[in-house]
Amino acid sequence: MAFSATPGNVIGPFLMEQASHLFMVEEFIPAELTPERHQEILNRMFTKWLTTELNYKLSI
To answer: For a Cys staple, 5 with which of 25, 31, 38, 45, CB 3.0–4.6 Å?
Structure first.
């Protein structure tokens, strides 16, 4: 729904837990996967995997 809205429009309401929220689309920023961003994503994924593995090994 948000991606089909035009900038400047208010969308919603969206029910989240016990509240309703309205959102205003200000602008769309196209996705860009730079080599730096790609490496950052890989580093985060590796760190999360390693932390999970270490926690599992330490709990045995």
So the answer is: 25
Confidence class of residue 3 from pLDDT cuts 50, 70 and 90?
Answer: confident
Q: How many CA atoms lie within 13 A of 55 on its CB side?
A: 6
Q: Full-prediction pTM beyond 0.85?
A: no
23, 7 contact by CB (below 8 A):
no
Q: What angle do CA 13, 23, 15 make, to 5 degrees?
A: 30
